[in-house]
# Entry
Amino acid sequence: MTDSPEANSSPETDRRAAPPSTSPHLWVTSTYFAEGFPYTVVNGLAEIMFKEFGATLQVIGLTSLFHLPWNLKFLWGPWLDRFATKRSWLIWTEVWLSVALVGLAATVHTGAVLAFAAVAFTLIAVLSATHDIAIDGYYLEALDESGKSKFVGYRAMAFRVAGLLVSGPLLVAIGRWGWSSGLLLCAAVMGTLMVLHARLLPRVETQVRSFGDLGRGLLRRRVFLVAAAVALAFIVERETGWAEAAFRWFAATAVLARLGVGGVVGLLLVLGLLTLLGLRRWIFARLGSSNSPLAVAYTSFLAQPRVGRVLAFVILFRTGESFLLKMRWPFLRDEMGMTLETYGLVNGTVGVAASFSATLLGGWLIGRQGLKRWLWPFLLAQNLLNLSYFALAEAGMGVAPWVVTVVIVGEHFGAGLGTAVFMVYIMRCCHPDHKAAHMALVTAVMSVGFSVAGVFSGFAAEAIGFSGYFVFTFLASVPAMLLVFGVPHLDDPAAADADPGEPS
# Structure
């Protein structure tokens, strides 16, 4: 990676105003579409491609490992704050994503498709996770407090539309024209987005260090030692097969298998953070003079007031909803007699539209009147509507289909309002000097609640029945609501209320 054209620009050039045509509506939508597109290629297409090219079920299961870079991206997030600018990282990762997708298309014509595809998907996953960090960091840099709140709905909508495009029309194209043509189409989409962003994204940061500085830093001795250790691990694995044995143990352990690789990584991250919290005075004393980007970024995160409550709130915020999501379809199918086609229409079309609309509305209202004004209404809308499923479970099969539809769509709408609150809150947890690193850390932590819900949801539903289970999903949301009384970052910055209009 070389320096981008903006690498040698002056601070005045870096801070110049965007062209009049560059509206946040455009670039927020395009960047988060660009974030969702490669994410879905890796996490949606990989298992389908491996199946089509004859992989065994065990190998297909291993494609879940491609998600690891998103769980681990907090490890290299600090580098994006320290070197070049978020805009440079965003554009250059899109360049290399386009190249990597062309490489993935080329694997179709090789004699070892699965081996080369695994390498290509791994590279795309790392680039895509880095791309996510850059986009989130750029969003935090480019918008004022009002804009950060107002556009959360556009973020969620654009990301989801990208996923729908990959899992729908793109698969149709692959079925008609073949994998190579379909993947080249993906590369063309990423290349088009890169050109668009290179022309239209406002320059909002002053570069302190260039990509060249990063390259020189990576040539230090310790980096070679890490690379040597990784190479040694691969050699030992080939000789002993320890990785395969570890995977079999993982798959045979019920709780770990249900958590999935991402869930285990998330839990280990939380345990690590809790350990650091307990040792933070000692850590601050040891690392106070350190220039390591990782040390500086994460000690600054742990130094914020009431950080333990922040972590608990982030983990628990979506727990009730996560439990509900895991058992919604089994309940509607087995207890309410809903067909898959009807569920796809109501939940996947009308429900998703309701969720988009609610997040757009919620972000707009928070942007105009502040988070504190809408925190409790939106929290209650997210969590109380879980009890509507309890009412359905009590009523049973006799409920009219339109009532079931109203419950599903209403719950989606409430969840969308909760999403607006949550996205605004996690942005406020990020220190201005470490936006990318802190955002990467918080988004890695927030997946833990969903993973834990996935492990225990089936056991809980079987033990207490669906009626009791849906009451439990509401009770699971209560700890987060109680934490509202003690978490920081809820007071609205002056900018949030001062300018309810378009962000600059």
About this structure: The domain at 257-498 is CATH 1.20.1250.20 (Growth Hormone; Chain: A;). Residues 435-475 form the longest helix (41 residues).
